[in-house]
Every structure is written in C-alpha cells, then in structure tokens.
Amino acid sequence: xxxWLNKTIYKFKDCFSREASFNWFMVIIIGLMIxxxxxxxxxxxxxxxxxxxxxxSMLHFFHASSWTIExxxxxxxxxxxxxxxxxxxxxxxxxxxxxxxxxxxARKMPCVKKHHQESDNSSKAEYIxxxxxxxxxxxxxxENKMFCVPLTATIQDGANxxxxxxxxxxxxxxxxxxxxxxxxxxxxxxxxSILLLDRYFLTVPALRAYAAxxxxxxxxxxxxxxxAKRAVVAYEKPIQKAGRGRPRKKGETIKLKDLFTxxxxxxxxAVVLMYGKPQSVKYLCKDLLWGQGLYQELRFVLVTYGGxxxxxxxxxxxxxxxxIIRLYSYRFKIEVTFRELKQVIAGFSYHxxxxxxxxxxxxLKKDAPPPLEAVSDEKTKNAILSTFKAIEGYVQFxxxxxGLLQILAIQFSGVLSSSCFRWLRTKSNDTPSEATVALxxxxxxxxxxxxxxxxxxSKIINAKHFQILEPSDSFTA
Length: 477
Fold this sequence. Notes:
eleven-stranded mixed sheet, two-stranded antiparallel ribbon, 477 residues
C-alpha cells in the first residue's frame, strides 16, 4: 500500500519547478492523511515528528511561486482516471457538483463574506461569515461501495476582484456558472461525463455557459441531471403554422407540479436501485422546452417516492427515466465526502491571513463597494493574492488527501478488512471507510520508515526529522 501511495504521489512531481517544493507537497499530503488533531499546519509537524524549525518553511511553501493550483488539479484528475476505479455509466464517468460553506471569523482573510445557510439543521446558524467553495467530484467504486473523490474546490463568491488582478481578461461569473465551467474542465480530462447537480443549479445562465463552453471544444462534454423546483414551468414544442410571420419558439405552458394530480393515472411503476436498495417508485416522463428566452429541450421525470413528489430534469432525451432516477440518487455521495473532508482530515482548518488585507467590516451595507476596490498598490495586491492562493491550495491538497484515502480503501480493501488493527462493533461493508484507512496509515507509517527506507516518502520525511537549519535558511529550504 505504501509503495503504491509513493508511486502515485510522484506523479505530481512535474507540477513543481523546484524539488524542495515537491518535497513539502509530499510531506503535507501525508500529514493531512494521518494527523490526529486538526490545529492547522502545526498538527502535521507534530504527527510526523518534523523538526519544529521547518515550520516557517512549510508555511512559505503555500505562498511559493513554484506551483499552480491549475496544474495540480489537472494532474489529480488525470491520476484518478489512470488508476482505473472510476464508476462508469455507459462508459461515461459521473461527476457531482455542489457548494459548501465554511465559517471563518478572521478579519484579515481574503474573500470572507456573509452567507445565508439554507440547511434545515438546527445546529447551523442562519447567517455566517466565511467562504463559499464550489466542489467537483467524480464517483469511484462499484454498486456495493462508492466514494465521491473531490477533484477541485475553489472559492466562488467574493473572489471576482482577486481573479481580475490575476487575469485582466477575467469575466465576472456567478457561483452557478463557475461550477459549470469547472465541471467542463474536469470533463475535458475525463471525457464525456454525466454531471449531477441539485436544484439550485438549474438556471438559464448555467445552461448558456455550458453551451458556450461546448462550442469551444466542438464536441459534447456533459450530460446534466439535476432537480427542478416545484414551481417549474415548461413549454410544449411549438406547432408551426403555414403563412407569414416569425416561427414560434414555444408551445403551450405547462406547470409541472399540476401533472402530479391531472396525470396521476399515467404514471408508470418501476423498481429502481436507490441508495443501495431496490426501491419502488412511480414516474412520468415528459420531453419539454424550458428556460425563458432559451427554450432548450429537457427530459423531465416526475417521481413519487416515499410519499414525496419530486421533479428531475436531464439535458439528454436518450437516457431512460429509470436511469435518471437512479443516477440522481448518487448525488448525495458528495455530501458524505464533505463530512469526511471536515471530520477526518479537517480540510477547511486553514488559518491564512494577510496584514495587507483591508479589515472585514461586518456591517458593510449591501450596495457599498467592496474594500478591495480601493487597493491600488501592486505590492499589497501581490500579498493578498498570495494569501488567496494559500487558502485554495490548502483545500486542494486536502481534496487530494481525502481522495487518496478513498482510493486506498477500494484498492486495498482485502488487506485492510482482514487486518485486526481496529475493532468495529458493526461492520457494514467489506470496503473500509476513510477514517479506517487513515488510522491504518497512522499505525504503520513509522514501521514503514524502518522497513522501507528506500521509498521517496521515507527519505523525504526522514530528512525533515534530522536536518538542522541555520536561522537564515529557514525560509528558503
């Protein structure tokens, strides 16, 4: 297992222009995978027994110019594809996209904004200050056990000004549009994919953004499956009449929620594999036009399951209603990944901030200009952009760390399941969880250092144990 992990991490070496940066990348990935406490970068120093004088060097790595998030994200997507454990539907990988909000109270941290929490969970506040991340993941495994491996996670609200500083040609885009663009980038690497989204992302700007991106590559990238709001309105295909005048773009208006009552007798019944179990559902399939001014043909599937009525929408009219229902049930896998990302490796426990950042004003009026617009000094801009890169880089490294734990759980399930290193009261599946794999690594890593000193992981981390730095070299190692 350690040999496989060593080989996999070395695939990222070409993403770094300096060997020292790649060494720190390996240390941080391993540290995130095995650490027991979640108190920032210091937990990696403690868990791996690294010389404390390297702490500043490790912090400096996150701000280094020797790597880019785009290069690492692309390599990570290619690596997941090459490993060969993707879950495929008609030879198409399944992407899942969603947003996650992380509370941050720092007054000098870039992109901290006030966000509304839509969750019904009583433990969450209605409004928080923090970051909104948009995440794209891909399904791996089989019907018996699936994981959603996060491929990218970027800040998608409050970062427009910073992205303009980096790229003068950058166009402002909403959270929904940025999610579609990131999914298209992932599909460019993985090939034609199915993208699962919740109802928040069924918008005209999202479909237009996808159509525009599809034209640049001249081939189909995504088949989108999402949920529609209860008040969704669609249109029949227009019946063209002979004579003069502009051709009609739409036909009769249909309120889809009314079909649950008026067309109740037309619903078909089927048994669909949902959430790991065969479930009996009733459904009605309609191909209609949707979107004011867009009028794109979508396949709507009205579903009655467990006493709840839902409306699903798909951009492809070739997928069967049963397949659309089954595929959408996989969307919840990304919520499980968010939980593991937070609880197992604390992927959002970053503390990066900058003195150059204007102080957060929690009482700023909605129409007031953002404080970043007043920043004009290039040195100040570079300091803020460096902190912004460190935050997104930390979360991207956490995505790689949790993804490696998930892949290890599938690739080495036989070894881990037969091992008696961890007692479980109830064993629900032969494939272990991310937490179980992390514990196994934590218990075997120092034995690995002794038995396999020739591995790159052993050499790099052991060098950080014993090498003594001069005070003037601490920032350049």
